[in-house]
Specification:
The complex is a heterodimer. Chain A is an all-alpha fold. Chain A contains 11 helices and no strands. Chain B is globular. The chains are: A mainly alpha, B alpha/beta.
Chain lengths: ~280, ~140
């Protein structure tokens, strides 16, 4: 019963929180660029407006894929809030990520195609890192179940500091922030227009935006597991992580996917192994 | 209630798309100036998108000729309703000094319906922002 209540709570709260974070994100980004910035509620206005627009689709797959992306993202957040199995959560969110790529691939538009291919490479880059993070959490706490991880006495950050940095890479890729914003970006006036989202329009773009909020909360929720012992610690950790994310977004140039694959895999995997060996030796 | 929120949101988040029908670049840099920190139109939720499928407001600069009229029409058709069109600068309004040229059709309104005309050569950024805000009145009118 408690699990179901927590799951419903997750489904309801996550998009509201995610939208607010997106709004604060845009505001802080504007301040970093010495602009005034839009209102905090701007992402909600954007999505509401998108839902009020005409439904123009190229084919049925776009509708289907955007809905599956939303449902998978919402379900992964619900499973995370419901304190179930980390591996199950991981597989459900992977389904969502793959369906977004399929939606991009379903149209012959070159921008959409290129964006979808790049999105696929992004998924390929961060998924091994996330699974390594989950595996290292298992090695520390002895369980993949979130309720058992939460029962662990000390913050995971003490034993897994490098894994948190690795998760930071996954967060940056998932949020599509520089230097990893090449499949799509928040400001679409770039080299491949809007990449994987080019062919989505109106309500379906709105659905994808809401799914993106869910995903933001999903990754931040995983980050929160690293300091689960105190509420102040969780808030401190998440705020500083997200702020670091914004600083990186505003100071880095966009890179190529080859650079991302080489850099994230070499540094990410190296840090994972160092952390895991240290865990074993210590 | 939700419907009302959607209607209010239209005026709060106009995503603009900028199409240059062979302008001299004068109006174009004025449009882009609106997006710089000095004028910062993102305050009003205005985002410059590069994709007609995401856009709500189409900003057109320059003279329309038989070649780019097809492109302009195509871009206009790809924008989902509700949408607005703003013609910017003397060339966009009527063809400007080029209106007598053999290849110039005249104003943007010869090809697609225009909601707001922003005069000037080039149009001032303040006038362009004012034009976008005026175009929002069309969305307000849809409230019904």
């Amino acid at each position: 019963m408690k699990t179901i209540i927590l799951m419903i709570l997750g489904i309801v709260i996550a998009p509201i929180l995610g939208g607010l974070i997106a709004g604060i994100d845009r505001r802080v980004t504007a301040r970093l660029q010495s602009r005034f910035g839009p209102p905090i509620l701007q992402p909600f206005y954007d999505v509401a407006k998108l839902f009020g627009k005409d439904k123009v689709v190229s084919n049925f797959w776009q509708v289907f894929c955007s809905w599956v992306y939303l449902i998978a993202a919402a379900l992964s957040v619900a499973l995370l809030f419901g304190q179930t199995d980390l591996l199950l959560v991981f597989f459900v969110q992977a389904i969502g990520a793959v369906f977004l790529v399929m939606g991009g691939l379903s149209t012959p538009s070159p921008y959409s195609q290129v964006g979808a291919q790049r999105e696929l490479i992004q998924v390929l880059t961060y998924e091994p890192l996330i699974i390594l993070v989950f595996a290292s959490i298992f090695m520390v706490t002895g369980s993949f179940r979130i309720d058992e991880i939460l029962a662990y006495k000390q913050p995971l950050l003490i034993q897994l500091p490098l894994m948190f940095v690795v998760l930071g890479y996954a967060l940056t890729i998932k949020l599509r922030k520089s230097p990893f914003d090449f499949s799509t970006s928040h400001h679409g006036h770039q080299e491949i227009v809007k990449g994987v989202l080019t062919e989505f329009s109106g309500p379906y773009l709105g659905i994808i935006e809401i799914a993106h909020w869910y995903e933001t909360i999903f990754i931040l929720g995983i980050c929160a597991l690293f300091w689960h012992t105190s509420l102040v610690g969780v808030i401190l950790l998440l705020v500083s992580t997200y702020f670091a994310e914004l600083i990186i977004d505003n100071t880095m140039a966009r890179m190529t996917w080859r650079w991302m694959l080489k850099y994230v895999w070499s540094i990410g995997l190296a840090m994972s192994f160092v952390n895991l060996i240290w865990l074993y030796a210590g | 209630m939700f419907k009302k929120f959607i209607e209010n949101s239209r005026a709060k988040s106009p995503w603009i798309m900028h199409f240059d029908c062979g302008s001299c670049n004068g109006c174009d840099i004025e449009v882009l100036a609106c997006l710089t920190p000095l004028y910062d139109v993102e305050r009003f939720g205005i985002v410059n998108v590069g994709n007609p499928k995401h856009a709500d407001v189409l900003l057109v600069t320059g003279t329309v000729n038989p070649r780019n009229a097809k492109v302009l029409r195509n871009i206009y058709d790809q924008m989902p309703d509700p949408k607005g069109v703003i013609a910017i600068g003397a060339c966009g309004l009527s063809g400007g000094v080029f209106r007598e040229c053999y290849n110039v059709l005249g104003g943007v309104d010869k090809v697609i319906p225009v909601d707001v005309y922003v005069p000037g050569c080039p149009a001032k950024p303040e006038a362009i922002i004012d034009g976008v805000v005026t175009a929002l009145a069309k969305f307000e009118g849809l409230k019904g």
